[in-house]
Write a structure and sequence with these properties.
Blueprint: H1 2-25, E1 33-35, E2 45-50, E3 57-63, E4 67-69, E5 75-78, E6 82-92, E7 95-105, E8 111-114, E9 117-129, E10 137-143, E11 152-158, E12 168-171, E13 180-188, E14 191-196, E15 205-211, E16 221-237, E17 242-257, E18 259-260
Parallel strand pairs: 9-18
Antiparallel strand pairs: 1-2, 2-5, 3-6, 4-5, 6-7, 8-9, 8-17, 9-10, 10-11, 11-13, 12-15, 13-14, 14-16, 15-16, 16-17
């Protein structure tokens, strides 16, 4: 009888020890990550910082719209505006865990400012070939103006490098490759007013590749920034004929989007 009781006690103690060891040895993972921006602009590259612990497998998923996740999971580009959710899933031999971050993506605020008045850019920027009229290939943008019959025509004249536009290209007025001019034509009730400049006012036009489309370079996304530019204001007097200046206006511009091929 004593042997039986002793055997039962040993079995009970062994079970307690085994149960205790099994519980103490488990080490499930903990999910966690941060994003460099939770309110980005469409086509911004958002950096992912992994902060998970004790994980042998880490994966990410995105819901809410079109996106491009880097193969190494270090960044994500949101290809449209809207509300997204980024979820991290982690696992090891002892368990799994998830963590999610909500993201609100804004559309670009494409705007030009003329003497302190903000006006929206209409549609995509596009290349325009004026060589048939003795001109060159340059970038055009159309700007909406309430009550105006025709939109303002913004004209950017970069002197192109080896390509019409390179991946990252800054134009200056230094006289070498990179020189640029800017101009505008405004139509009010069918009468044209022009703003032109000779490109020597010392302000920079900057065009940068923001997103390189894997399928077509025509769908690449660029930032175009003109910080401040002085335009001579006036109109063409056909009776002289000559440009008659009425003063100056200041133009600045921000645009993010495609630059459509020559029209």
């Amino acid at each position: 009888m004593k042997k039986t009781i002793r055997g039962l006690l040993i079995l009970m103690m062994t079970a307690v020890v085994l149960t205790s060891c099994s519980s103490d040895d488990k080490n499930p993972p903990t999910a966690g990550f941060t994003l460099s921006e939770t309110n980005p602009v469409q086509w911004d590259k958002v950096t992912i910082s992994n902060q998970a612990s004790d994980a042998t497998t880490v994966t990410y998923s995105v819901t809410g719209g079109n996106y491009e996740l880097a193969t190494d999971n270090t960044s994500v580009v949101f290809l449209e505006e809207g509300n997204f959710t980024v979820t991290q899933s982690v696992s090891n031999s002892d368990g799994t865990d998830t963590s999610s971050v909500s993201v609100t993506v804004d559309s670009p605020d494409n705007m030009y400012t003329l003497d302190g008045t903000d006006l929206p850019v209409k549609d995509n920027a596009f290349w325009y070939d004026a060589s048939a009229m003795g001109g060159t290939v340059y970038i055009r943008m159309l700007g909406d103006v309430a009550g105006q019959d025709n939109p303002n025509l913004i004209k950017l004249y970069p002197v192109s490098g080896p390509n019409p536009i390179e991946s990252t290209y800054t134009w200056s007025d230094s006289g070498d490759i990179g020189t640029y001019d800017a101009g505008m034509t405004a139509n009010y009730a069918g009468f044209s007013y022009d703003w032109t400049t000779n490109g020597d006012s010392g302000q920079d036009l900057k065009i940068e590749l923001v997103y390189e489309d894997p399928n077509s370079s025509d769908d690449n996304i660029y930032d175009i920034t003109l910080t401040s530019y002085t335009l001579n204001y006036g109109n063409w007097d056909f009776s002289i004929p000559a440009f008659v200046s009425d003063g100056t206006k200041t133009l600045s511009l921000y645009y993010r989007g495609k630059i459509d091929p020559v029209k």
